[in-house]
Design a protein that fits this description.
With 232 residues, the chain is an alpha/beta fold. It is built from nine helices and twelve strands. It starts with a strand and ends with a helix.
């Protein structure tokens, strides 16, 4: 089945060039120079991935990302002419799944699109897994806590699943990056820390009194969900 992409960028020429290139990979593509038009269209259409520029006059990409995340977990790849690490962190904090600085190789963008779509439609175990107050559905890629459904991005879900399957082991940032290649996270920046921090907030994990993720300073993180479950 063809996957539908939304490209939101005020550069009409780039939109046209990207559309022509991505069409070779059997994507259905809609382009928007006005973010408000894209947000309107998302209310009525199924979208498999959003390619989102940061620098736009009507509404910047960070604001658009925030609006999308109010109602959708669709994978978002942000494009920017800026290479500032701070911009990448802000994008991740708002729920972006990946970040590609301009200029970029179109084939690399295709690989990243395919990776985030694959993460959003994973082939995992056909059962549910309960850890602490969390119930994880690997098929539907959903998480429910004692308080109700937890709205995770595909990157957050993959990170949680990665740790759940490695309980009691200290995992450093390099190992996380190596195993979660789809996100193309870089170990030298704070991408991993930001995503874990955001995940902690959503599943009700307090870093000072953790139930799931324990920080091992200078080394990485350890998943302790099973330990706290047995203790209770």
């Amino acid at each position: 089945m063809q996957k539908q992409l939304f490209i939101i960028d005020d550069d009409a020429k780039l939109n046209r060039q990207l559309s022509e290139y991505l069409a070779q990979f059997s994507f259905r593509i809609q382009t928007f120079v006005r973010p408000s038009d894209a947000l309107d269209a998302m209310r009525n259409e199924n979208v498999d991935c959003v390619i989102l520029d940061v620098m736009m006059p009507q509404m910047d990409g960070f604001t658009v990302c925030k609006e999308i995340r109010k109602t959708s977990t669709v994978p978002i790849i942000m494009l920017t002419a800026r290479g500032d690490v701070t911009d990448r962190i802000v994008g991740l904090e708002l729920g972006a799944d990946d970040y590609v600085p301009k200029p970029f190789e179109p084939r690399e963008l295709v690989a990243r699109i395919q990776a985030v779509i694959r993460r959003n439609n994973p082939v995992h175990e056909n059962d549910l897994q309960a850890v602490g107050d969390l119930t994880i559905n690997y098929v539907k890629q959903t998480v429910v806590s004692a308080a109700g459904p937890v709205n995770l991005t595909s990157a957050e879900f993959e990170l949680l699943a990665f740790f759940v399957k490695r309980p009691g082991r200290v995992v450093d940032r390099d190992t996380i990056v190596d195993n979660l290649k789809g996100t193309e996270w870089q170990a030298f920046d704070r991408s991993v820390d930001v995503t874990i921090s955001r995940l902690r907030q959503k599943i009700g994990d307090n870093s000072k009194n953790p139930k799931y993720f324990k920080t091992v300073w200078g080394k990485g993180y350890i998943f302790i969900g099973y330990e706290t479950e047995q203790a209770s």
